[in-house]
TrEMBL record:
Name the record gives this protein: Exodeoxyribonuclease 7 large subunit
Domain OB-fold nucleic acid binding residue range list: 5-98
Record flagged with keyword Plastid: no
Record-level GO BP terms: DNA catabolic process
Family, as annotated: Belongs to the XseA family.
UniProt cross-references to InterPro entries, sorted A to Z: Exonuc_VII_L, Exonuc_VII_lsu_C, OB-fold_nuc-bd_dom
Coiled-coil regions listed: none
Naturally occurring in which organism (per UniProt): Malaciobacter marinus
Annotated Exonuclease VII large subunit C-terminal domain residues: 121-353
Domain of life where this protein originates: Bacteria
Length: 395
């Protein structure tokens, strides 16, 4: 990924782009914020009802200024755009300034524009939309101008699948308006997807054929969607207002008409990637479902149940053996205890000289429990003697 631009670098690039794109700009507006600087430069703005742009006329060009500028004046300016890099603001550098006044052509233009607007020629509701993927485009323009070559070049790079039909047409001079009308009518009969009517730049007199009423009528009456591509960005012709779409230049008309093949390639790549990801996700999900079902089947199969029962039987058997073993061990311990007790109580194991076992009524008793006249048995391992207690004395 590229490193980010610095602010200065970005402003410098914008400055270069503006200065090379708008080498000569012709604009009209009303003066505001006027300042005659002590350096001899004149700073001001021009505006219309929606926008404002900063302007400057440097001292070297003020010698061509034949009148004094005043706030509120309507003027025409020729100059070029530039960017003041430290602030990132753009302004119009004025080389010539003239008072704005209507000549014959300008007045005719405004009159026809008003007339056609009242007739509804400019209404957006009647304008036809352009097809997204045109297969055939008819060009009503001069076969020898630079415009046709520019359009072919843009089309080759943008969408080489399109087919062009050229209707050679006069686009300048007294006879141009009639030839443009005839060419538009013929082009409309070819049933193409889009019609581009236009020419390259020139003076207002050079472009005037596209301001004629009969040309406007021909554009209005066509069934084919029309793009008006006359002159440069700053040129606005009657044909621009009547046509379904206005293009800044003939090359721009091709850009408007055709999709960008590179964007579609990128889009197709993204679709392919998305399809792969979705396909992989579906396969993974199905695989996990199968694994889950297999585990459930294994857990609930007869073999699994038999294995579970066998395991439980084995546990019970082991538990039984452990308990039985504990019982045997416990009984053996009890028996051993009894045996030990018996052996301890066996007179044979207790025989000592001078010692006998005293019992009464076949029960072993202690000497201190005897009473006078009790009949007792005195027993050794070998002999039993019967005796009567005649006296008892406590020591």
């Amino acid at each position: 990924m590229n490193a980010p631009l610095t602010v200065t670098a970005l402003n410098t690039q914008i400055k270069s782009l503006l200065e090379t794109t708008f080498l000569e700009t012709y604009v009209e507006g009303e003066i505001s914020n006027l300042t005659y600087h002590s350096s001899g430069h004149i700073y001001f703005s021009i505006k219309d009802d929606k926008s404002t742009i900063s302007c400057v006329m440097f001292r070297g060009n003020t010698k061509y200024l034949k009148f004094k500028l005043e706030v509120g004046q309507k003027i025409n300016i020729r100059g070029n755009l530039t960017v003041y890099t430290p602030r990132g603001s753009y302004q119009l550098i004025c080389s010539r300034i003239e008072p704005s006044g209507q000549g014959a052509l300008a007045l005719a233009y405004e009159q026809l524009k008003k007339k056609l607007q009242e007739k509804g020629y400019f209404d957006s509701q009647r304008k036809k939309s352009l097809p997204k993927y045109p297969k055939k485009i008819v060009l009503v323009t001069s076969p020898t101008g630079a415009a046709i070559e520019d359009m072919k070049k843009v089309a080759t790079n943008r969408w080489p699948l399109v087919e062009f039909i050229l209707v050679p047409t006069l686009v300048q001079g007294e006879m141009a308006k009639n030839d443009i009308v005839n060419s538009i009518k013929y082009a409309d009969s070819l049933a193409c997807d889009i019609m581009i009517v236009g020419r390259g730049g020139g003076s207002i007199e050079d472009l005037w054929a596209f301001n004629e009423e009969i040309v406007a009528n021909a554009i209005y009456e066509t069934n084919t969607p029309i793009i008006s591509a006359v002159g440069h960005e700053v040129d606005f012709l009657i044909s621009d207002f009547v046509a379904d779409v206005r293009a800044a230049t003939p090359s721009n008309a091709i850009e408007i008409s055709l999709p960008d093949i590179n964007e579609h390639r990128i889009y197709l790549d993204s679709l392919h990637k998305e399809f792969e990801n979705r396909y992989k996700n579906i396969l993974y999900t199905k695989e996990q479902n199968i694994i889950h079902l297999k585990r459930m089947y294994e857990q609930n199969s007869i073999e699994s149940k038999f294995n579970l029962i066998a395991s439980e039987i084995k546990i019970l058997k082991q538990s039984f053996e452990n308990r039985f073993s504990n019982i045997i061990i416990s009984s053996q311990n009890s028996l051993n205890m009894l045996k030990n007790s018996f052996e301890l109580s066996n007179p044979k194991n207790k025989e000592k000289k001078g010692f006998v076992q005293i019992s009464k009524d076949e029960k072993i008793i202690d000497l201190d429990t005897l009473k006078i006249d009790d009949i007792v048995s005195l027993q050794t391992p070998k002999y039993i003697a019967t005796a009567k207690i005649e006296a008892i004395k406590k020591q």
